[in-house]
């Protein structure tokens, strides 16, 4: 049985995660339920919940998206159904129809797509699919939320009478309105409505001229509202009919409500089911925002988190565009407790909270932001001691509170426990508090509990170094700037960089030296050795990261070249096939040409036919027997190769044309130089360079040394002017 206390959830800020999920809910009912999410008590329930979220998240990438599941809460309607002799109004019934349609649509969809969403379908199969509620209400209430005229014979007759009387009333009022307007008794607005009755807006001085009932007057008293005497009778008759109509409607609604009462449990189930799906949907949307996945859940005692992000930090940083640093950490039988040390503000506490919060989220049925190859086991108990926790109400100091907490830890710790303790042992005398903390840690170790602690105590670092299934870890720092790198390194204890950090923050060197003298030399040497190791580790880490990047680039380049090579090889094979085919066609063409020439000379048809048949038989002997389908495929393949070749040739020709045009443009753009005697020139597209001896009427005599030639000036290209 899994039990995770409220204190643990509060320490890990689990309520903030719930508030984020609630924001993604579509319904108020779903939001209120989302804020009450707690870790599942059984593994079976948890596995189902995780699969549901995983399936819903996968639907975002499918064409078959899960339909809308939003609904208005019907909690008030269900309460009324529980009370005898009450009835639901038309708008209440419309809400019930709406939730029934939504539930049925979702149930039908999941049944139809059971292969894509097997677990969601299994959950939905527990809910009854029926249209009885919808049909019952639809026969009485129309799509506008009004009771239908044919809901009962009496209502139909009453509404016919109402329409008739309403028509008479409007006609009578219209006649009076026209008559009194012509007489000039009415104000500019002519008419108004008082108590849902049409009245004439009569100027106050003519109120005695208009017969009827005074229904009121304007604020200034200049207008008196009068219902004409002729329409009074119709108004009374209409009021009576409307009263009877309401009575009949109430009777119909009471009868319908009574017929719906047997479905109370189903309606409650619909509301619970849709709000449950709303939470599954919200978890999936939250997972998408965090790039979260479902890691491998193992029955072995193993917790391997690769590239794990703190969910709240990642959520906040992505909104701001800031970087979040992931951590990789492993706990197993051979490494059950990790002691993280190093200076403050390096990310120790965040690392601790990351592991705890991710574990709680997973055990609450949520996907988590880790690498998909992560492996996680489930814990029955997760214990935390994070933060100051000074209790003012109970008059407890930090240390007293922590001791009380340790007492609880000792009572609960076993091989199915994960404990997370921040700043273990603080709050008391360093040596005495450290010794007690060491004793506690040994007990947790003996009980085979998994845990992570952060500390500055050297004796706890030494203990982690001595025990075989416990290890040290530190948060890496930049060796020069002492800025945190927010990366966890397993296997080495971390220096607190006490004196280095003090110096960086401007504390005088003389004061730091004075402090060093007050501490044992061995302890300083030990801390300095750790600090040096950390600096070396930091350098090595950077070098390793650089080499990995280069290795990855080389691997990518190798893969790219391999793909190009394979593609070229396939093309060469295709072109070879095409070449062989064309050579065969040329050979056959040559044979046919020889036969036709022979026949042209001797005119012997029989000999021609015999020779031709021999050629055909030889060719057919080389062919493989193929089905019509295979022949079609082969033909298409050949045609595809031919088209590719044509396309390539076309592209090459186009490129050559473009290059030629560019050259012509460049040539045309060159400034025209007037040739003179003595200029060195060459023929266009020529290589030999000569000197112009004479120029006359567009002709030039060019001296090449060995010989001279007479050419047109337009065919010459200027090279160099004779130096004076």
Strands side by side in the biggest sheet:
10-11-12-8-13-14
Number of domains: 5
CATH superfamily of the largest domain: P-loop containing nucleotide triphosphate hydrolases
Number of helices: 21
- Give the overall form: extended
The biggest sheet, with number of strands, parallel, antiparallel or mixed sense and barrel status, is: 6 strands, mixed
Q: Which range best describes the helical content: under 10%, 10-25%, 25-40%, 40-55%, 55-70% or over 70%?
A: 40-55%
Any idea of the CATH class of the largest domain? Answer: Alpha Beta
Could you say which structural class the secondary elements and strand pairing correspond to? alpha/beta
Strand content: 5-15%
What is the CATH third-level topology name of the largest domain? Rossmann fold
What does this structure look like?
The chain has 724 residues and is of the alpha/beta class. The chain has 5 domains: 10-147 and 260-290, MutS, DNA mismatch repair protein, Chain A, domain 3 (Orthogonal Bundle), CATH 1.10.1420; 154-248; 302-494, Rossmann fold; 553-639; 680-720. It has helices at 6-11, 14-23, 28-34, 43-58, 75-82, 90-112, 118-124, 132-138, 153-183, 229-260, 264-290, 311-320, 348-362, 398-412, 430-446, 458-466, 498-504, 509-517, 521-602, 605-622, 628-669; strands at 186-194, 197-203, 212-217, 223-228, 296-297, 302-308, 327-332, 337-341, 375-376, 381-385, 417-421, 450-454, 470-477, 484-490, 680-683, 689-696, 699-703, 708-712, 716-720. The strands form 4 sheets. It has a 6-stranded mixed sheet, sandwiched between helices. Strands 18-17-16-15-19 form a 5-stranded antiparallel sheet, with no helix packed on it. Strand 13 and strand 14 form a beta hairpin. Mean pLDDT is 84; it is low at 390-395.
């Amino acid at each position: 049985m899994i039990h995770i206390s409220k204190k643990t959830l509060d320490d890990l800020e689990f309520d903030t995660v719930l508030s984020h999920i609630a924001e993604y809910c579509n319904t108020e009912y779903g939001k209120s339920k989302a804020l009450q999410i707690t870790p599942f008590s059984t593994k079976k329930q948890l596995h189902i919940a995780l699969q549901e979220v995983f399936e819903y998240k996968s639907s975002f990438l499918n064409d078959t998206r899960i339909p809308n599941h939003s609904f208005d809460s019907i909690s008030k309607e269900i309460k009324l159904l529980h009370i005898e002799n009450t009835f639901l109004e038309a708008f209440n019934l419309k809400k019930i129809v709406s939730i029934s349609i939504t539930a049925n649509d979702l149930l039908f969809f999941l049944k139809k797509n059971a292969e894509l969403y097997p677990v969601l379908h299994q959950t939905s199969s527990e809910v009854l699919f029926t249209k009885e509620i919808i049909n019952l209400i639809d026969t009485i209430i129309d799509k506008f939320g009004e009771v239908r005229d044919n809901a009962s014979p009496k209502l139909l007759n009453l509404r016919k009478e109402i329409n008739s009387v309403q028509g008479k009333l409007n006609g009578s009022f219209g006649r009076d309105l026209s008559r009194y307007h012509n007489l000039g008794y009415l104000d500019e607005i002519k008419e108004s409505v008082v108590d849902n009755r049409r009245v004439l807006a009569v100027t106050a001085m003519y109120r005695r001229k208009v017969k009827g009932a005074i229904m009121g007057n304007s604020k200034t008293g200049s207008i008196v509202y009068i219902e004409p005497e002729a329409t009074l009778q119709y108004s009374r008759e209409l009021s009576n009919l409307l009263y009877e109509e309401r009575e009949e409607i109430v009777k119909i609604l009471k009868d319908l409500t009574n017929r719906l009462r047997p479905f109370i449990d189903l309606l409650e189930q619909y509301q619970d089911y849709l709000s449950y799906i709303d939470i599954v949907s919200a978890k999936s949307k939250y997972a998408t925002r965090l790039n979260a996945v479902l890691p491998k859940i193992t029955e072995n005692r193993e917790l391997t988190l690769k590239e794990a992000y703190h969910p709240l930090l990642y959520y906040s940083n992505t909104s701001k565009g800031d970087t979040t640093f992931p951590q990789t950490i492993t706990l197993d039988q051979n490494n059950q407790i990790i002691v993280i040390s190093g200076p403050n503000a390096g990310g120790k506490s965040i690392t601790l909270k990351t592991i705890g919060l991710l574990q709680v989220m997973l055990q609450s049925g949520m996907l988590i932001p880790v690498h998909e190859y992560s492996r996680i086991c489930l814990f029955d108990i997760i214990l935390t001691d994070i933060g100051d926790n000074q209790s003012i109400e109970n008059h407890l100091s930090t240390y007293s509170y922590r001791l009380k907490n340790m007492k609880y830890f000792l009572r609960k710790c076993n091989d199915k426990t994960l404990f997370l303790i921040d700043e273990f042992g603080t709050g008391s005398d360093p040596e005495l508090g450290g010794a007690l903390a060491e004793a506690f840690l040994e007990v947790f170790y003996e009980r085979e509990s998994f845990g992570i602690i952060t500390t500055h105590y050297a004796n706890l670092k030494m203990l982690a170094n001595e025990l075989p299934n416990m290890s040290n870890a530190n948060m890496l720092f930049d060796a020069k700037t002492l800025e945190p790198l927010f990366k966890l390194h397993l296997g080495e204890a971390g220096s607190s960089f006490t004196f280095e950090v003090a110096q960086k923050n401007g504390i005088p060197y003389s004061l730091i030296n004075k402090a060093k003298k007050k501490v044992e030399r061995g302890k300083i040497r030990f801390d300095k050795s750790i600090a040096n190791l950390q600096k070396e580790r930091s350098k090595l880490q950077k070098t390793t990261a650089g080499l990995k990047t280069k290795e990855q680039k080389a691997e990518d380049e190798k893969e790219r070249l391999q793909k190009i090579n394979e593609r070229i090889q396939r093309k060469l094979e295709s072109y070879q096939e095409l070449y062989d085919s064309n050579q065969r066609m040329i050979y056959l063409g040559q044979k046919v040409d020889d036969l036709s020439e022979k026949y042209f000379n001797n005119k012997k048809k029989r000999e021609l036919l015999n020779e031709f048949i021999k050629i055909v038989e030889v060719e057919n002997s080389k062919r493989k027997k193929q089905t019509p389908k295979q022949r079609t495929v082969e033909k298409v393949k050949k045609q595809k190769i031919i088209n590719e070749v044509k396309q390539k040739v076309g592209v090459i020709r186009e490129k050559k044309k473009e290059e030629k045009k560019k050259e012509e443009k460049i040539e045309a753009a060159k400034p025209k130089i007037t040739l003179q005697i003595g200029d060195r020139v060459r023929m266009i597209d020529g290589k030999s360079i000569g000197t112009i001896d004479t120029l006359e009427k567009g002709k030039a005599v060019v001296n090449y040394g060995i010989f001279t030639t007479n050419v047109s000036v337009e065919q010459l290209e200027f090279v160099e002017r004779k130096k004076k």
